[in-house]
Write a structure and sequence with these properties.
With about 280 residues, this protein is α/β, with parallel strands linked by helices. It has eleven helices and nine strands. The longest helix is centred in the last third of the chain and has 15 residues.
């Protein structure tokens, strides 16, 4: 496992620095990395997707554990480092992991090839929310996501009704997955140290997740969430109209953030189709 000194040396030898636009804050604390891998229970021979490998610290550890790693890296400088260190032992996908904000990139999909897989990654901040939602709703072969994200994102994922953080990302992930916090990761565990605290999450599909709705209904539910939470401070009757067959326990004067996930599901079934939107799979613009 690479040390902080080795990570800095790899970049210095090439005259490069971590790039803020790619969210490059390299997790170098070995205890935290081990905690993430242990939580994922990676089995030898299992396909593991890693997004944003950076210099390959986590990548190398996964390879040593016997995983069949698919690493997706957008930065050409980091691609070169990963290719040099573990290129023959992994599949390296060069480019963005996302196709827009509602689908995985074709190159990453091709590399996965329809096989069961698990996501284990220190996620770049810009990709975290849409990627987690996409895997939870559109990829039943993903057995789980074990990721490091900003603490504020982790708080949103685990939020409760009537709180500021409760919104589309919360509802989508909790509807289709169980979510637990593995641990909090202080800024000093990264280089360069970010201005925010991070957290590790375990996001695993509910056993009944694929029986809840067909794929088309999942997309419809996402559109509904976008429609109501884009006006979250308004009453539901003002957003949707008052001439609905309101589900039990739901009133026109309620606000979206006051409803439980089950109430939102029932309400979505009572309203006409929401129009298409241009945001990501979490309902965010």
């Amino acid at each position: 496992m690479q040390t902080l000194t080795e990570i800095k040396a790899l970049l210095a030898a090439r005259g490069i620095r971590p790039k803020h636009r790619f969210g490059q804050n390299f997790l170098h604390d070995h205890n935290q990395l081990k905690k993430l891998i242990d939580a994922a229970r990676v089995a030898p021979g299992e396909v593991v997707v890693e997004v944003g490998p950076g210099t390959g610290t986590l990548t190398e550890t996964l390879v040593e554990a016997g995983a069949r790693v698919i690493a997706c890296e957008i930065d050409a400088d980091m691609q070169a480092i990963v290719r040099e260190r573990v290129g023959e032992r992994i599949t390296l996908v060069e480019g963005d992991c996302l196709d827009g904000k509602r689908a995985l990139s074709p190159a990453l999909l091709d590399a996965i090839g329809g096989r069961p897989f698990v996501l284990v990654a220190n996620l770049p901040y810009g990709a975290a929310s849409p990627l987690m939602a996409i895997l939870a709703t559109r990829h039943p072969t993903c057995r789980g996501q074990f990721v490091t994200v900003q603490k504020e994102v982790a708080d949103r994922v685990r939020a409760k009704p009537n709180t500021r953080d409760y919104g589309p990302l919360t509802i989508i992930l909790q509807r289709y997955c169980t979510v637990r916090e593995i641990g909090v990761v202080p800024p000093g565990c990264f280089w360069p140290a970010p201005d925010v605290t991070s957290a590790m999450l375990a996001i695993e599909p509910r056993r009944d997740a694929r029986d809840l709705e067909p794929a088309a209904d999942v997309e419809r539910f996402e559109r509904f969430l976008h429609s109501v939470f884009s006006k979250r401070r308004k009453q539901l009757g003002s957003i949707l109209g008052r001439d609905l067959a309101w589900p039990a326990g739901v009133r026109p004067e309620d606000r979206p953030e006051a409803l439980t996930i089950e109430q939102l599901v029932e309400l979505s079934r009572a309203v006409p189709d929401a129009p298409p939107f241009q945001g990501d799979a979490t309902g965010e613009q």
